[in-house]
Amino acid sequence: MADHLLAADLATRAGQLLLGVREEFADAEAAERKAAGDRRSHEFLMAELAAARPDDAVLSEEATEAELANSKRIGAQRVWIVDPLDGTREFAELGRDDWAVHVALWQAGELIAGAVALPAQGITLATPDVPAPAAGDGPARVVVSRTRPPAVALAVRDALDGVLVEMGSAGAKVAAVVQGHADVYVHAGGQYEWDSAAPVAVARAAGLHTSRIDGSPLRYNRTDPRLPDLIVCRPEYAAAVLAAVSS
């Protein structure tokens, strides 16, 4: 199976597994539901990638210390970067659909494949063919966390004379821009490579602007997986967004 198809297949199937976990733990405490979702999706993705791409390394948010020690990802030519459950808070709240599964492939310095599954919406966005979003006909829509919108997002909203759209996980936010439900996503509150790798791959395939908030490129498979800030937006907004966050 080609890398693009494998990413889409694994993200979709992990999402289906998570829907089953959500149903199984519907009467459990939210913390128990979160833990079961994280663990089972991670175990599924690790097993499937080991079977399908045994020579590739894997970086997963839920990796154990032993898995990280044995991943040999630094110096590897191909590394799968996965978030088995992006948006555990939203996953744990029954009825919410703004959570995701991320599966991306990094090869020799670049993201070459990626998929973001939105299981509760029945959608998987995957490279290489991602339609460009249609332009909105109202004020710029800046998608932010529903619990902690960063100051830079508020600055962008003001600079664009826009409106805020509250949403959960990073994957769901980027997907909203890809799908044309929002125009800008800007984050500066701290993230890791697995939070953005697959969403950025999908966004780039859709022709969107992606960068750090200082305009520099997003780099993956670093020794330190922290990648704390991110801009994903329609290209016509990029200059204004970068100006707003640098002022």
From TrEMBL:
CDD domains: CysQ. Pfam families: Inositol_P. Keywords: Magnesium, Metal-binding. Its cofactor is Mg(2+). Mg(2+) binds at E61, D83, L85, D86, D195. It comes from the Bacteria. GO terms for molecular function: 3'(2'),5'-bisphosphate nucleotidase activity; metal ion binding. One of its GO terms (biological process) is sulfate assimilation. InterPro entries: CysQ/Inositol_MonoPase, Inositol_monophosphatase-like. This is 3'(2'),5'-bisphosphate nucleotidase CysQ. It comes from Mycolicibacterium fallax.
